[in-house]
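Reviewer 2 asked us to include a model.

Predict the structure of this chain.
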Amino acid sequence: MKDIVIIGAGGFGREVAWLIEDINKNKLEWNIKGFIDDNPSLIGKLINGYKVIGDLAWLKKQNIYAACAIGNPITKKNIISKLNGTKVKYPVLIHPSVIKSDIIKVGEGTIICAGNILTVNIEVGKHVVINLDCTIGHDVKIKDYSTVLPGVNISGYAILEECVSVGTSSAIIQGIKIGKNTIIGANSAIVKDLPKNCIAVGVPARPIKFNH
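Predicted model (structure tokens):
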């Protein structure tokens, strides 16, 4: 078995531990060593049977696999950048229940949770999170560090640029492009392209705030 740690001891970190446990039920592959978290009050604590064994400074010194269980794309990108040049490795973690074709590309560090369906000719970048029960249509591109929250439906040829976050139960129609660093609120319907660096909500979704 390969040793792995989970970066982030919050709710999604606990869900990723469960995902890894389910992978191990099919084929014993991973030995979960524990959680990594920069909150000093958590160090040494036991969470769902796994200890918080250190912070990022500790992790930088290790030669180990790590799953970055952080939902916020910008935070996730910043954490990975702090680990550049170390011996930390990032596996692709896909829940056994996921339905997918063989004609997809998935980058390192990406986590695909239970209940997802990915069809054909899909490109998923590095350190992407696809949370529970999403559908991803043909020829979709989801670029690095993006997060797709539960119950999202993405139709064919849509493009999510780097660090996009799509809120729970949102729908993206065919051919839509969503700009870098954009956040989409829950239950939104994206029927037109969205610019970068904005927060968009509604049916149809419209930008309500720009981050830069």
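The mean pLDDT is 97. The longest strand covers residues 30-36. We have added this to the supplementary material.
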